[in-house]
Design a protein that fits this description.
The protein has about 230 residues and is an alpha/beta fold. It has helices at about 50-60, 80-90, 105-115, 120-135, 150-165, 180-200, 210-215, and strands at about 5-20, 25-35, 40-45, 65-70, 75, 90-95, 170-175, 200-205, 215-220, 225-230. The strands form two sheets. A six-stranded mixed β-sheet has the order 6-7-8-3-9-10. It has a four-stranded antiparallel β-sheet with strand order 2-1-4-5, with helices on one face. It binds adenosine-5'-diphosphate and magnesium ion. Adenosine-5'-diphosphate binds near residues 47 and 51. Magnesium ion binds near residues 51 and 52.
Length: about 230
């Protein structure tokens, strides 16, 4: 039997936000998840249920109060900022609801950026950025800046950028949340195609049921914990 590799494991995550006047929000209360190479996982839950908190912790953008996170088997809780940045840069791709592209850079330059940070030489990274923009279906947008592109096109650039350093996993937080129905569907189908054809592992946080329906696995976040959903 073939053993699937766990690219991401998180065990018993807790996160409390402390506000003024002693007010505390217990966003995660023992959330656990395992993601295997080639998975396409959707995480669903209403607004305020802790989806972004979870994804930020899984993506090493935030730290849990307790619990463990392993990326490719490496325990990451307790690593220093430089070590975390390095793992983020090489192993994790991010896609956000608002694309988060750099406005003064062209599409090509936005995709090059993570490769610049990773020390990829200029010729090689331009070649790869071009290939990635072809892969996401917008080769003609190379020289365009974000404000010269539609939302769907900007999200394609963001997906290309997420793939730049060949990450072990791509984490997407409401990637269709800002798009119309048609563009949403195109973006989901693009991510699915990348998953099926290139075995890219995705974890997609969404409250869009059309996205969740297409995922191989669906987890629901409820009371700060994750539950595997058998039927939608
Ligand atoms: N930086 C923060 N400071 C205080 N409370 C926060 C912060 N971020 C999120 N929260 C609270 O934590 C809970 C979960 O939020 P979030 O993870 O953003 O949920 P979702 O992404 O599912 O909408 C909410 O009650 C939210 O108000
Ligand atoms: Mg959110």
């Amino acid at each position: 039997m073939e053993m699937k590799k766990a690219v991401l494991r998180a065990i018993n995550l807790h996160k409390v936000y402390r506000m003024g006047k002693g007010v505390r929000v217990h966003a995660l209360r023992g959330a656990s998840i395992e993601v295997y190479e080639g998975d396409f996982v959707a995480i669903i839950g209403p607004s305020g249920s802790g989806k972004t908190t979870l994804l930020n912790i899984l993506g090493l953008l935030d730290v849990p109060d307790s619990g463990e996170v392993f990326i490719d088997g490496i325990p990451v809780v307790g690593l220093d900022d430089d070590e975390l940045s390095e793992i983020r840069l090489r192993k994790i791709g991010f896609v956000f609801q608002h694309y988060n592209l750099i406005p003064i850079l062209t599409a090509l330059e936005n995709v090059e950026l993570p490769m610049i940070l990773a020390g990829v030489p200029p010729k090689k990274r331009v070649e790869r950025a071009r290939e990635l923009l072809r892969m996401v279906g917008i080769p003609e947008m190379e020289e365009h800046k974000p404000n010269e592109m539609s939302g769907g096109q900007q999200q394609r650039v963001a997906i290309a950028r997420a793939l730049a350093n060949e990450p072990s996993i791509v984490l997407a937080d409401e990637p269709t949340g800002n798009l119309d129905t048609k563009s949403s569907e195109e973006i989901v189908n693009l991510m699915l195609r990348l998953n099926r054809e290139r075995n890219i592992t995705f974890v997609v946080v969404t409250h869009d049921m059309d996205v969740a329906k297409k995922a191989d696995r669906v987890l629901r976040i409820r009371d700060g914990k994750l539950y595997e959903v058998k039927e939608l």
